[in-house]
Amino acid sequence: MKIALSGRIGERDLKELGQRARDEIAELPEVSQAELRYDRPYEISVEVSEETLRRHGLTLEAVAAAVRNASLDLPGGSVKTEGGEILLRAKGQAYRGEEFEKIVVLTRTDGTIVRLGELGRVVDGFEDTDLRGLFNGDPSVVIRVQLIGEEDVRKAADALKAWVPRFRAKLPEGVSITIFNDESMDLVTRLAVMGKNAWQGLLLVVVVLTLFLRFRLALWVAAGVPISLLGALMLFPFFGLTINTMTLMAFILVLGILTDDAVVIGESVQSIEEETGDQVEAAIRGTQAMSVPVVFGVLTTMAAFLPILLVEGRMGSFIGVVGHVAILTLVFSLIESQLVLPAHLAHRKLTPKGSAPPNAFVRRWLAFQDRTIGWLERLGNVHYRRMIEQAIEWRYAVLTACVGVLVLTTALMISGRLRYQFFPQVAGNVVYATLTMERGIPLDRTEIAVAQIQQAADELRAEIEAEYPDQQVVVHTFGSIGEQLARDGPVEPGQMGGSHLAEVGMELVPAMEREITTDEVLSRWREKTGAVPDAVELVFGSDAFKVGDAINIELFGSEDLDELTGAAAMTKQFLATFAGINDVADSFRSGKQEVQLAVRPSALPLGLTQNDLARQVRQAFYGEEAQRVQRGRDDVRVMIRYPESERRSLGSLEDMRIRTREGVEVPFGAVADATIERGFSAIRRTDRQRVVTVTAEVDRSVSTPEQVLAAYHAWSPTLSERYPNVSYRLGGEQREQADAAGSVIRGFVMALLLIYVLLAIPLGSYLQPFIIMSVIPFGFVGAVLGHWLLGWDLIFFSILGIVALSGVVVNASLVMVHTINTQTATGKGFDEAIHDAAIMRFRPIVLTTATTFFGLLSLMFETAVPALPFVPMAISLGCGVLYAAIMTLFLVPVGYVVLDDLLRWRSGAGAREGTAETGAGAAGPAVGELAGS
């Protein structure tokens, strides 16, 4: 959060008000840090002209020495008298400009004295830096409030909002205090959006469960969700987690997954209960029957979320919390399904058979539920049975079709019909125009450029207010001259401050409260501003979260700066030909013009050295620091230098006198050579190589950075022909992508190995895990098709969703294969065991898939800006689970039979003839090998 104090008052008065406000804010118990920005430090400047120095035979160094000798407090020890100890102190320290004016600099034998105020002008003011803050066009200072540790953002925001009216009442007329860039409001908005999706997802999960399970059973199954979430929240402090957007995002992602194990246990208990009528026995047997696949299924899901914990770079710090929260909730979900749920099911109240419903609504609901349950049973016992028999009979055709779908889906991506980009453009509620002029440019030229940008902002604000009279769109405008607006992250080299830097910002109301988009505001502002004279770079942006420049090309390989800048110019010309490319710039910044000084050889006999020349020029134009004064909390420098009028012209340098060590005054031109050159503002090096970086922004509705850079890679040989010594590499977003993708790939491989091990342990087989894991690629197919059908690009979050999906989709497959093994162990024929197991698992697979899908459905269709980066991840999980469930129902039984065929061929038993008609005699020796291989 930032707080602006603005008004048409003096700079000193504005700074003092800012300091008072900062002190009061820092005293609030809810706030830890408050920093005052855009206020120049205090400085006492003693300005003595060259003419005055010559008239009195003085030097700037002598004036500084006089100040040091006269302005000081020095302890003198103590006198121990009979009445006690008395301290001695020489007290003469000056603290204010008027006190320094009284310091005696020169005395003569006739008794006359020359004081500092008579020698020159003493200015008790501010450092000579070009720094201005603007708020709604008025001069301002800004208090930046930051929180550290475990401080609560909302409590701090509430405390500040309560404090502001109290402080406003004490302000003089014409001064206003305003809160802007209130990040707590963004947090509240994001939490509200995520909270809405969470309860909507939970409601859909409960509705799905109550459609196909008896009401009390459905409620106990759904109760596992809040129990798991609360259990995870209990452990948040131990893992350094807080309730924020990302933790809520993780809760939404696992809402439907958390009921999977409970659905399997509940359905198993209900089936046995219908057979035996004994609740306690059904709870025990039903839980025991599904305990092994459920436990190892949850473990595989946890393993699939591990790669999210291993993501490197800025993206890892952003998304890693999702992995932590998902694993914690899954742990409590497992505990609840194995220990808590069976106890609840064993002692829940049952409606006696034959008893009449208590009212008409219950009667109609039970009748409706009977119809839905009957429909699902008919779908499984009749239609699905017939389809699975046909699929097993035509198993190789089914496998071929599955492979064909996988190939076509991959082609959908390779052909470019489904675009991929690393991270979407997340528009924030603040739009910026960042201006960089030539270094050394006069401040008034920068002010003119800022005025042009500000005028365009004001005109746009008026237009928007006319177009949308019923809503406020632009809340505030603010800006800075001398440095760019404070944001998170390190300051770029060469961007520390100066008259060439400026920035203007417009704060908009939250996206959900306006019809016009941030991108449209930004585009219209850019168009209205037009070209800014003398601007080296003008970049418009609004990213709420950014992992790096969309286009960032580092040119290196040559120490010849002309080659690098030439290659950068060619690169910028090429990038500018693409539609959707804006704000193309490079990092090369020529420095300010320099007058390089050197002592002439003819001056050496006078005893002058390069150090004498440099020191005296520095004293005259930069200043000699006489002392530092602690005035309150401010550390005030006392500087001795030429008057401002003599520091504004190179003619003053020519008129300067250089003093030898004997006190002889020599004209500057007689002892020094001066040449005018232009230096560099900063020399950037990476891996010890000089680098010039070309950057650009991309309108992602038109193109993606990946498409632009692919074209650049194809064009790069043309660049190499012109500049053979120059090479390039990608930075910014692409470097983050490379780091993050590499860590995800490594983590995914590790997760697949871990999933294989976790599947092999309960199955006691080395081959059956491959049947189960064959579903994983089709989760990818579902995720890709979901993005394509819903009109979304694949992004990095989509890939993370697919990675997490790999552990979710194997759960149903594991339960089905475990059931097949259980059926064959009872002595059933091979084909009969497969058919019966598939029918038995049909209802729980449908239910677990439905709860996962509908738990994510609300987020999949969310349009609020704060949730947009997470929608693709929800699409990957939701659509991937949906498609993978279909494949599980057909591919796993088919794969089981195909693997049996392969084992038969290997053992020489020959291929099996027929499927459904084979019966118990078809089991053969391969079945035992398949179950225990």
Which characteristics define this entry?
single chain; 933 residues; alpha+beta; 9-stranded antiparallel sheet; 4-stranded mixed sheet; 54% helix
Structure explained in plain terms:
This protein is α+β, with helices and mostly antiparallel strands. Helices cover 54% and strands 18% of the residues. The longest helix has 37 residues, at 871-907. The two termini are 63 Å apart. Mean pLDDT is 82; it is low at 488-495 and 914-929.
**How many separate helices?**
29
Mean pLDDT across all amino acids: 82
Shape summary: elongated
Beta strand %: 15-25%
Q: Which range best describes the helical content: under 10%, 10-25%, 25-40%, 40-55%, 55-70% or over 70%?
A: 40-55%
Report the span from N to C terminus: 63 Å
Query: Which structural class is indicated by helix and strand composition?
Result: alpha+beta
Rg over CA atoms, rounded to whole Å, is: 38 Å
- How is the main sheet built? 9 strands, antiparallel
Query: How many extended strands?
Result: 27
Low-confidence stretches: 488-495, 914-929
